[in-house]
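Schema walk-through. Below, the input block comes first and the output block second. Nothing else is stored per chain. Lengths vary across the set, and this one has 203 residues.
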Amino acid sequence: MESLESLLKELKDIAISSSSYNEIDENRLRDICSKLEKKTRYGTRCYIKKQFIKDLANVEINDNHISSFANIVKSYIYLTKDLGIKKEEIGEIIKEFPQILELNIEKKIEPKLNFYENKGYSRDYIIKRYRLFSYSLEKRIKPRFAFLDYLGIKESNLVKILYPNDKDFSKKYFKDGKKDYLEFLKKYKPYKNYKKRKNRERD
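--- output ---
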């Protein structure tokens, strides 16, 4: 029977040796993670995950809401191999924003990365502002860019566009004779359709 230490070593090997996110051996990863789930108790699993992250990325995190073993490995591979984040930098990112290990690559990271790049922002610029991945593409990112287009404003600083809450954002860009952002949202069709879809999903 495989020991906990040997399973964690295999898991780390996948994280280190995989050349890219798309080249992950999903069957092997799934098998190892399944064995780890069975071998660890719920109460100690969080601690073991923290220790695994410390061993993998040389960083200690305090967040007790930690993603699955599989997501930790997938995120690490994507960030270091696909996005090219240096190993000495990945620990700092995880420490400051541990939620990045929980974000679904296909649904929460790549669509936003593609959107930002299509707007002319470099990958390096985006990666250095990794919290930009925490914002909703449909509820925050797209509507704000649409509003700035409506006002005819060119804003190059993504932090200024996305960090403020809706009210502060509205105050910042309000122009006499123009509708403010909160009013704009009420009539912005993609946002309205998104809200309706989410409401139907909850019903």
